[in-house]
Write a structure and sequence with these properties.
The chain is an alpha+beta fold. The chain contains 8 helices and 8 strands. The strands form 2 sheets. The chain has a 4-stranded antiparallel β-sheet with strand order 3-1-2-8. It has a 4-stranded antiparallel β-sheet with strand order 5-6-4-7, with helices on both faces. Keywords: Cytoplasm, DNA-binding, Transcription, Transcription regulation.
């Protein structure tokens, strides 16, 4: 198994399962997808992907439809994706993906978390290079041969593929998302969920006390409503 498998296993052990937070994130994804490509999932591949993820998260259909309708209103808030970078205590790099309708508020909040927890907010590009930006797809495992699928999908950018209890997972570079999505849809293969992740190229092992210092900062960041995802280089 490769880095993507180990990364996913570690992430699944984490506490990132609060339903309200998940639905909030998906709601923002819907708004950004609709603003970018319109409310029709047939012609909007990004919105199609978000709806699949909403279904995987057991988000009620009426919530999804309400979010699409609300996003179609020209007076609705428009969220902007903003990346923040910095260091936690003990030299742990942190990368924060946010979706915000008020950048000044988000900047001030993120900076305050770093300051309160002995971290340092970095400049653009200061830690992003330490992470590989990847896309992923989850499909049902029934009727699929992992090795055969790997050989067939390698031409579309897939670099790592493995089966787990949730189905078959595929990982590829960020830029390959569109070609893989299109190929799976052309083959009539159901996409259970898809998304993007940033996998640390190297991780650092800390003592129990040091981990607690880093966790304190991570928890503050993850609780912020504008934060979508948090990635770090601490070994889990």
């Amino acid at each position: 198994m490769g880095r993507a498998f180990e990364f996913r296993k570690a992430r699944k052990m984490k506490r990132w399962s609060a339903m309200a937070k998940t639905f909030t994130r998906i709601g923002k994804d819907i708004v950004m997808a609709v603003k970018e490509g319109g409310p029709n999932p047939e012609s909007n591949s990004r919105l199609r992907a978000v709806i699949q993820n909403a279904k995987a998260a057991n988000m009620p259909k009426e919530n999804v439809e309400r979010a699409i309708k609300k996003a179609s209103d020209k007076d609705s808030a428009n969220f902007k994706e903003v990346l923040f970078e910095g260091y936690a205590p003990h030299g742990i790099a942190i990368l924060i993906e946010t979706a915000t309708d008020n950048n000044n508020r988000t900047v001030a909040n993120i900076r305050s978390y770093f300051n309160k927890c002995n971290g340092t907010m970095g400049t653009q590009g200061s830690v992003e290079f330490m992470f590989d930006h990847t896309c992923n797809f989850r499909i049902p495992s029934e009727g699929q041969d992992v090795e055969e699928m790997e050989l067939e999908m390698i031409d579309f950018g897939v670099e790592e593929i493995f089966a787990d209890e949730d189905g078959i997972m595929m990982y590829a570079p960020f830029e390959s998302f569109g070609s893989i999505q299109k190929e799976l849809e052309n083959r009539g293969i159901e996409i259970l969920s898809s998304g993007f992740e940033r996998i640390p190229q190297i991780t650092k092992e800390l003592t129990e006390d040091q981990v607690a210092d880093v966790e304190k900062l991570l928890e503050k960041i993850e609780e912020d409503d504008d934060v979508m995802n948090v990635y770090h280089t601490m070994k889990e």
